[in-house]
Amino acid sequence: MPYIPLKDRAELDSGERGPISAGELAYVIARLVKRWVGPTPDYATLAAAVGVLETAKLEFQRQVVEPYENIKISKNGKVY
C-alpha cells in the first residue's frame, strides 16, 4: 500500500477531492472495502470482499480496457 501523507488522506477520506494518482486510488479503494467489511469481519465477508474486487476488476477490463485495446489494434495492428 502506498504511503499517503496525512493531509492528503484527510482530503480523500472526507471526499473533499478524489484520487489523483494510482497510489491514492488504491488507498481510496482499500479504505472503502475496509469500511464495508467492518471492524470484525468473518471469513465469508472477507471472501465476499475479495470476490467483489475481482469482479470489479474483470468488469473494468471488459468495459474499458478491451475497447481501448481494440481501438489501438485497429490503428496500429496486432503485436503478434
Structural features, described:
With 80 residues, the protein is mainly alpha-helical. It folds into two domains: 1-39, no CATH class; 41-80. It has three helices and no strands. The protein has helices at residues 6-14, 22-37, 43-76. The N and C termini lie far apart (34 Å).
Which range does the strand content fall in? under 5%
Classify the helix fraction into a percent range. over 70%
Give the terminus-to-terminus CA distance: 34 Å
Number of domains: 2
Oligomer: single chain
Largest sheet: none
Question: Which runs of at least 5 residues are low in confidence (pLDDT < 50)?
Answer: none
Radius of gyration from the CA trace? 17 Å
- The overall strand count is 0
Tally of helical segments: 3
Shape: flat
Order of helices and strands: HHH
**Helix and strand composition category:** mainly alpha
Structure at a glance:
With 80 residues, this protein is mainly alpha-helical.
Keywords summarizing the entry:
single chain; 80 residues; mainly alpha; 2 domains; 74% helix; 0% strand
Topology:
Layout: H1 6-14, H2 22-37, H3 43-76
